[in-house]
Structure formats: C-alpha cells, structure tokens
C-alpha cells in the first residue's frame, strides 16, 4: 500500500478525498474556480479588458482576444495572397490554400443509384452507406422467392406472390375461418393442427390485437452471430423460399379470437424431424433431468413409447435436444458430454418409416387374402350344399330300391 492511499488528501471546500496532490489541485481549480490558497481565479487577472469576459486559464483568454477582438479590429488576421480571404486560424488558411494548389482538375463523384453529386469519394461512400444500404436491407427483409419458379416479389404485402401462385401455378389458396372463446382454446386448436398435419408455426408478428403465425420452413436461414468465424456445416429447416401456409388471428375486446387458417404448404413436405418439441414435452424431459436420470435411459424410454402409440416428435429425441433443454431450464449433470447421436436417430427414423411401409403392405396383402379366402369359403359352401342335396337324393333312391326288393321277396314267399 502506498502512502497516498493510506492517508488520502481532502478538498478544503467539499471534503472530497483524492489519492494525489495533483488531482486535488485540478479539482479545486476546475470545480471551485479557486487556487490552492482559496482565492478565486477570476479575480487573479483572467478577465478580458475589452468585453470583461472572465476565464479560468490565461491561454483561453489569449485565444479569445486573438479570435474575437482581432477579427473586429482587423488586426493580427491571416490573409490570403490571391483573394480577400482572412482568418484567425492557420488551419483555415491552409484549407483555403489547397483550392489553389490542385494540380489535377477536381473530379466530381456521381452516385450510380441516384442523381447525387459529390466532390470527394469519401462523401460519396458516406452517402451510399447512409441512404442505399438501408434500402437494400429493407428489400432483403421483404424479398420473397417463389418455391416453384425463379419469380421474386419485393412487395410489402403477401398478396402479390399469392396471386402469382394462384394464376401461374394454378394453386387454390383457400382460407378457413374459425372462432374461439379464449386464447387458450385457440392455442389448444393450434397444437392439434400441428399434430394432425405434422407442421409447426412460428409467431412472426405480435401486435396489440393481432397475431400472425408463419410456417417454420418459410424464408431463408439467417445466422445469429457477428460473422467473425466461418459457419460449420449444419442443417436448416428453411427452404429458402416462400410458403403460403399460416394462421392470422384477431383478438376481440371480450377476449374471443377469430382465426384465418391457410392450410396449403408449397415447396416442401411435412416431415416430423423439422418440428420442434412442445412445451409439455420439454417440461417432461426437464423433470427427468432434474431427477438425475441418465441421458441414455431417457432416450431408451422415449424410443419404447413408439410401440404403444404412433410416431411423434418426442420419439426422435437426440442428446443435442437434451443439452438444449438443460441450458434453457438451467439444469446440469455431473457427467461429461457424450458424442451426439443425430446420425443414429436419423437411421432409426428411416428404419421406422420402412417398417411402417412394410406393415402397410402386409395389411393390404392380408386384406386381399381375406377377400380371396371369403370367395373360396362361399364356393366351398355352395359345393357342400350341392353335395348334401345329391346325397339326399341318392339316399331316397336307395330307400326306394330297398323297399321294392323287400316287396318282391314277400311276393315270392
């Protein structure tokens, strides 16, 4: 510890503590306008003789006299040799002389995107950065690529590209209207639709009384970082084009919700691996993590649920999903991270798809076999009935023959 910090200096006026004498002196001069003895600095000859303006430092007084009063009197001014220009500063005179010392003629810089003209390239670049980069960013934000052809729409509203899909590609973009009593009922219906159609909708716009949900595969992938490092090879659910499917809902004053639903998806198939986990599923996994169940056991438990019910997004759970849930819920294991099993999950998913297709084929084949067996049974029943009739007729004939023979024997006797 230094002596300055152990015994700090105090200002004699406001009792503020300082570590060094120099900082204490500068504080008294700048804040209290006094010297170290307590005398005012303005009374120590730092006032202008002409206009009685007071200054703290003498150098400021000299600058004031040189600039203000020399311009009024016309004395001590720097003058140009070639014209009547005069100034009190050397920097202004040098800038003025640079106009006469140009060896090359002045080249005007024209903006290629508008009619603006500038005398320097620096001013032109500042103009482009201020005006035209904002326009380009706005156009990039509005740009919508058709998923079926190279057509691009830069309109603010979606009606232009929707008309393009209806007129040129002959698609029917019909809306369905629904009404709900509350927002909870609307969200319940939205979750049911995502399960039925194997799709997901992101909340794009949220205003006071309106909400607009867009298909999660709509648009272009945008990295979140500052582009300081090169991105790794990673997949994205975006199709780099426009998908018209969406939900637009309006909230009434009473709390009711009126929704407009566009069910048609264009440019992609609804696959289960591109759907997010629901909040209920994430909370379920977070509870398992909080109970310190191992990750492998969670994955096995999730895989076994497929045999009891249909394939869902939870069945495609990966270790990366578990890490994300740990991060979001601020949970942690005391175990090292294992290598991700995304490749294994994809192969397992394809295997399940193949098994489902095989089961469908077997069901269709069993249906056909049932029909053929039913036909065979009906034919066999017909043959059995015909055989019974023939046997009955033969039995009747035999009885008649036996009766005739008995009668003949009796007559001979």
Short description:
This is C2H2-type domain-containing protein. With 413 residues, this protein is an alpha+beta fold. 46% of the residues lie in helices and 11% in strands.
CATH class of the largest domain: Alpha Beta
Q: Strand sequence of the main sheet, in spatial order?
A: 9-13-12-11-10
Q: What number is the mean pLDDT? A: 77
- Approximate helicity band: 40-55%
Largest sheet: 5 strands, antiparallel
Tally of DSSP β-strands:
13
| Distance separating the two termini | 157 Å
Structural class designation: alpha+beta
Rg (CA only): 46 Å
CATH topology of the largest domain: Double Stranded RNA Binding Domain
The percentage of residues in β strands lies in: 5-15%
CATH architecture of the largest domain, by name, is 2-Layer Sandwich
Low-confidence stretches: 1-5, 335-340
Shape category: elongated
Number of spatially distinct domains: 4
- Count, helices: 11
What is the string of helix and strand elements? HEEHHEEHEEHEEHEHEEEEHHHH
